[in-house]
């Protein structure tokens, strides 16, 4: 085991926040998980770090940070229509998307360029451009710290919701996700319904639709709107898009006739949090090294030396102003450590 003590987590979180971890241990082999369970000399407080692309570090991290470095992609089985692909949770999500495209496996092309590792896909039920990971996740396997064994969860058992799953609730801190099995399609079922994709495909002059063309369009849209964490620290969408009742929505429409919305059910609609935040005047806001991205108000950024506490405080001010103006409570999407 390569246990390191008092290590800065700055290189390991896309916000680029500089706080130390008491202990850091890379996990590059699933056999290590049983050893860690048995080793009483290691701190019992454990945190699992994937790509560090959805966390805000607000203070030094006590206990043991396990850095997921599990790698491997293999085909489990296939039939005429589908292929079941088992992917180790430490694989980089976007590399897996590219691998799927090269192999003509369809279903995750709309999720190109989402930062992070494969293990975060079920945790967060990552989603973009009209597609969510749950649509292709067949099962999730992980080491259960209390049961001290590997357990497999069917897609139904994962209880996926919008940016949500059992791994954020009952199984929080209880499971180290080791692999995810995806059921991908041999025949693509193109999803270009998300407005910007069609426009982008036209702009690119695409004549014949393909999963590669869709991924290229998504990559182009994402790169134009979302800051690259290598240049400006960020963790993607900081808040979830809130769901409100139709009555509440209609009331808001009287003052804001152009308020955007997506239907959720007969009684509820989803409002883009980025719009709400922009209306409150935050878009492009900067205070010292903390700010709100100039092209997408849902993304909070670290221009260099921001602390997690500063970003947390700014997110609180944003929450309060959206509540005051619209009566809508935003919920943070990032995990706060
Ligand atoms: N909008 C504004 N101002 C802004 C940003 C957005 O008015 O500054 C409004 C516009 O009306 C725009 C609408 O919000 O048409 C939607 O914006 P966008 O397409 O950028 O998507 P989003 O709802 O802000 C969600 C996901 C993203 C995902 C995109 C594309 C959440 C929390 N975020 O953002 O996911 O990439 O859709 O599908 O659901 C992430 O989770 O980290 C993430 C980046």
Description:
The chain has 337 residues and is of the alpha+beta class. The protein folds into three domains: 4-68, Uridine Diphospho-n-acetylenolpyruvylglucosamine Reductase, domain 2 (2-Layer Sandwich), CATH 3.30.43.10; 73-185, Uridine Diphospho-n-acetylenolpyruvylglucosamine Reductase, domain 3; 233-336, UDP-N-acetylenolpyruvoylglucosamine reductase, C-terminal domain (Uridine Diphospho-n-acetylenolpyruvylglucosamine Reductase, domain 1, Alpha-Beta Complex). It has eight helices and 20 strands. It has helices at residues 31-38, 93-102, 120-124, 195-203, 211-225, 246-255, 273-279, 308-326, and strands at residues 4-8, 20-27, 46-49, 55-56, 61-68, 73-78, 82-88, 127-128, 131-132, 137-144, 149-154, 175-185, 233-234, 243-245, 262-263, 268-270, 286-287, 290-292, 300-302, 335-336. Strands 6-7-12-10-11 form a five-stranded antiparallel beta sheet, with no helix packed on it. Helix 4 (195-203) crosses helix 5 (211-225). The longest helix has 19 residues, at 308-326. It is globular, with a radius of gyration of 21 Å. It starts with a strand and ends with a strand. The mean pLDDT is 97. Bound molecules: uridine-diphosphate-2(N-acetylglucosaminyl) butyric acid. Uridine-diphosphate-2(N-acetylglucosaminyl) butyric acid (EPU) is lined by residues 128-129, 225, 236-237, 240-241, 260, 272, 274-275, 278, 283, 296-298, 333.
Quick structural summary:
With 337 residues, this protein is α+β, with helices and mostly antiparallel strands. It is 25% helix and 26% strand. The chain is globular and about 60 Å long.
């Amino acid at each position: 085991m390569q246990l390191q003590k008092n290590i800065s987590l700055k290189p390991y979180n896309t916000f680029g926040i500089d706080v130390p971890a008491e202990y850091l241990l890379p996990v590059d082999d699933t056999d290590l998980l049983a050893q860690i369970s048995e080793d009483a000399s290691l701190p019992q407080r454990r945190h699992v770090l994937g790509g560090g692309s959805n966390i805000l570090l607000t203070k030094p991290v006590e206990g043991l940070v396990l850095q997921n470095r599990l790698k491997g992609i293999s085909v489990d089985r296939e039939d005429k229509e589908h292929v079941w692909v088992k992917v180790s949770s430490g694989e980089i999500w976007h590399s897996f998307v590219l691998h799927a495209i090269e192999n003509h496996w369809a279903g995750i092309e709309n999720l190109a360029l989402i930062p992070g590792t494969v293990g975060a896909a079920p945790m967060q039920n990552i989603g973009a451009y009209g597609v969510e990971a749950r649509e292709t996740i067949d099962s999730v396997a992980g080491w259960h710290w209390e049961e001290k064994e590997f357990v497999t969860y069917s897609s139904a058992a994962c209880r996926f919701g919008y940016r949500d799953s059992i791994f954020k609730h009952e199984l929080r801190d209880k499971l180290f996700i080791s692999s995810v099995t995806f059921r991908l399609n041999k025949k693509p079922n193109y999803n270009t319904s998300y407005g910007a994709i069609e426009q982008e495909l036209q702009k690119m002059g695409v004549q014949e639709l393909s999963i590669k063309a869709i991924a290229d369009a998504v990559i182009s849209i994402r790169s134009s709107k979302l800051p690259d964490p290598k240049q400006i620290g960020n963790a993607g969408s900081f808040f979830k898009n809130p769901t409100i009742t139709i009555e509440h929505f209609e009331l808001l429409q009287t003052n804001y006739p152009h308020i955007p919305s997506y239907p959720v059910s007969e009684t509820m609609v989803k409002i883009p949090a980025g719009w709400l935040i922009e209306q409150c005047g935050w878009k492009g806001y900067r205070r010292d090294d903390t700010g709100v991205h100039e092209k997408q108000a849902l993304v909070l950024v670290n221009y260099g030396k921001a602390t997690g506490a500063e970003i947390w405080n700014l997110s609180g001010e944003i929450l309060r102003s959206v509540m005051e103006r619209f009566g809508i409570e935003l919920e943070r999407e990032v995990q706060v450590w």
